[in-house]
Amino acid sequence: MPPGGVAPKPGEPGVRAERAAGSGRAPSRLDRLRHGGRLLQDGASGGPVLRLVMRWVRRPLLPAVRLWRRNIQLRVVVSTLLMSLGVVILLGFVVIGQVRNGLLDAKAKAAQSQAAGGFAVAREKANAPVAPGAGQDGTATDGRTAGATWRSDLVEQLASGGQGSYNVVALSPESDGATGWGPRTTGTVDPASIPRELRTAVDQETGTFETYLQIKYNSDREAEPGLVVGTRLNDIEGNPYELYYVFPLAQEEQSLNLVRGTLATAGLFVVVLLGAIAWLVVRQTVTPVRMAAGIAERLSAGRLQERMKVTGEDDIARLGEAFNKMAQNLQLKIQQLEELSRMQRRFVSDVSHELRTPLTTVRMAADVIHEARSDFDPVTARSAELLGDQLDRFESLLSDLLEISRFDAGAAALEAEAIDLREVVRRVIGGAEPLAERKGSRIRVVGDDQPIVAEADARRVERVLRNLVVNAVEHGEGRDVVVRMAAAGGAVAVAVRDYGVGLKPGEATRVFNRFWRADPARARTTGGTGLGLSIAVEDARLHGGWLQAWGEPGGGSQFRLTLPRTADEPLRGSPIPLEPEDSRQSRERARSAESAATTGAKGQMFASAPPSHLSDGTPLPVPPRGPLPGSGTPTGVDPAALPGSGGARVVARPAGTSRTGAAPAPREKRQQAPHKQQAPQEKKAPQEKKASERSANRSAEREDTRRGR
């Protein structure tokens, strides 16, 4: 949906989303889960379900993750245990492999030697002459019986020498088929245990062959691993047969299991021992570091007398000594700076107070001279007026110095009460209108149709807004000054917008420094004492609020005061964006949005020429006495979700003062004082009227100064 678009109500026609041709079927649940996180149809979101599941899975792990991140000793010990366990496992595999190979090699050599002896005995018996009278008729039946008996006797004789360490199996070749002799075995060994691949090799080739097998038995005895060695021989009748020696590996398997158990026990013991050693070693290193971190935190909290306990002469001891020396020097420097700052504050306060008495005397004499200036020549009369002007600036400077010294000493007190900011803004604008008329500017107010109520100190808020409005008028170059008010959630805000010289990059944060000016070479003939915005930002902080600045070269600036509705309520955002809608970046964003939302020939027409108005009809270039930049910010919006809140620049505590150092609005006498010499032919009646107005304004200013002390 384009920015500012509204979804159609149920039952009303809407724009159908474009879909690729041929995609007639609805997306499956897997597609919705992969692309949009939706498991249900009709727009029901399945994303929250997945997020809840992930949160439920992560929640038990959060304490462990937090402990892992915060405890370096745990990380070192766990890492040592894991690496030690990996090394032990790897070493165990290597050792077990070597032992297994050694046992199998020894068993294979013994089996080959035993089988070679048995094969030699079988050959000798087959080549021995037949005893007289045994089967002399040569019938087939008598021959088969004699051959079968000979094989059985041979198998029993060969197996009797092993004492159960091996078994002997005699099989007829597979090529004989049904005419072959039956198998002869010892120890209830199943003839099917002999692998077919081995029998094929023995039947087709000459020589001795061996392989590993799983020995099966015809009894209830469980199968076990073994080694078989076989060859092809001839019996007493010259018929071929296969003779196999089967060696069980049960004893070797028991030995290997014993080695595995021993290695596992030893490895576990080694891992635990290494973990304990790592814990002790790391503890010796981490404990001083933790102690140093705790002492550093206490030092940062202001407890400068904290020191580390140093024992020994090792590297940790030298670190502790260096840390203690650093803390001692830091304490000494901070004490010196505090004493110097205290002396400076005391000096400023004493000088300001001591100058009050002579300044009062000089003021009385200057007022007398100023009232009688009509009797002087033009040069002397002008000098009397300049004397009065500079005395006004001197009085303002002393008042600001006293006020800033109260903030530095922490003696400023907030007298909060429920006030309507509209009344405060009206008073400020009423006092600044003469200056605006002289500068050729108009002050507009936006968003005053509803009450803007907050718990605040009316005097301090009025002083802040007076500085902002007077600064905007003085630097607005004759263009309009817009004062916008808004309230939303738990915050209220007042923004002052001018269209003058603006601020260069980086000046928005330095504008609140004391006595700061954009052009240091410029004489302080305009503006106030240079402490106005510094006092203003301190007043805003005293309320728990923000005073922020935005500006661009040649595009003017905007200062925004944000206060909580109730005292001691934390701010989470501002109802008014810090960057105004008519800034260059805002116009670029509006132009991009309008180009993206416009289609067809009409969109091409508008894209060919830059738009001249925003979406609400406000002209982009703001000429003198031009229309308002926008309407008031709607109420009832969460300030944290409003634009400009996230990118707002909050002025840091140590910084403070003014773009131009504008002080409270000058009195009507100062605003109407001519820059050139007055003509000697000026009528007396207007002079007396102006003199009476200046006297009244001086009395009001002195009363305001007494209230600000």
Automatic annotation (TrEMBL):
Gene: mtrB
Biased composition (Basic and acidic residues): 581-592, 681-709
Major location (coarse): membrane
Enzyme class: transferase
Reactions the enzyme catalyzes: ATP + protein L-histidine = ADP + protein N-phospho-L-histidine
Residues covered by the HAMP domain: 283-335
Topology term for the membrane: Multi-pass membrane protein
PROSITE patterns named among the record's database cross-references: HAMP (PS50885), HIS_KIN (PS50109)
Annotated protein name in UniProt: Sensor histidine kinase MtrB
Organism for this UniProt entry: Streptomyces chengmaiensis
Keyword Membrane: yes
Transmembrane regions: 76-96, 263-282
SUPFAM superfamilies hit by this protein: ATPase domain of HSP90 chaperone/DNA topoisomerase II/histidine kinase, HAMP domain-like, Homodimeric domain of signal transducing histidine kinase
